């Protein structure tokens, strides 16, 4: 089963809180924990990671907290997932360095590379702002659905 980690799922939820709050608003760890229901310690871990990866900036002081570095319409799911998990690779052979014993005689490797590219393209087509908004329309009108 292909699945993103719970931590990444939480990270995307946290990023949507910033999108909903607006680009000028700083949110604290406590506020994010309360808004999402994610445990405080996990929110701390996610905020630290997203700050290190350059998606968030932190500010100290009375009006301190965290803010998105970019407009939420410019932060894609691909970027968010890569920040949380590293490069997106569906199979071993779509990694930069393939350590597969069957690679030499594999006839499906090119297909997996194309599928991986299509998957990443789909993730690039969805922004954090999309994720923060109520679902009104199909993000994938060409027949890709959640079913």
Question: Topology of this protein?
Answer:
Layout: H1 6-21, H2 29-36, H3 40-52, E1 56-59, E2 65-68, H4 77-85, H5 109-124, H6 128-132
Antiparallel strand pairs: 1-2
Helix pairs in contact: 1-3, 1-4, 2-3
Large-scale geometry: elongated
| Percent in helix | 40-55%
* Overall SS class: mainly alpha
Biggest sheet, strands in spatial order?
Answer: 1-2
Can you characterise this structure?
By secondary structure, the protein is mostly helical. It contains 6 helices and 2 strands. The protein has a domain at 6-86 and 127-132: Arc Repressor Mutant, subunit A (Orthogonal Bundle). The protein has helices spanning 6-21, 29-36, 40-52, 77-85, 109-124, 128-132, and strands spanning 56-59, 65-68. Strands 1-2 form a two-stranded antiparallel ribbon. The longest helix has 16 residues, at 6-21. It is elongated and about 60 Å long. The mean pLDDT is 87.
For the structure shown, list the relevant keywords.
mainly alpha, Arc Repressor Mutant, subunit A, two-stranded antiparallel ribbon, 46% helix, elongated
Task: Summarize, please.
This protein is mainly α.
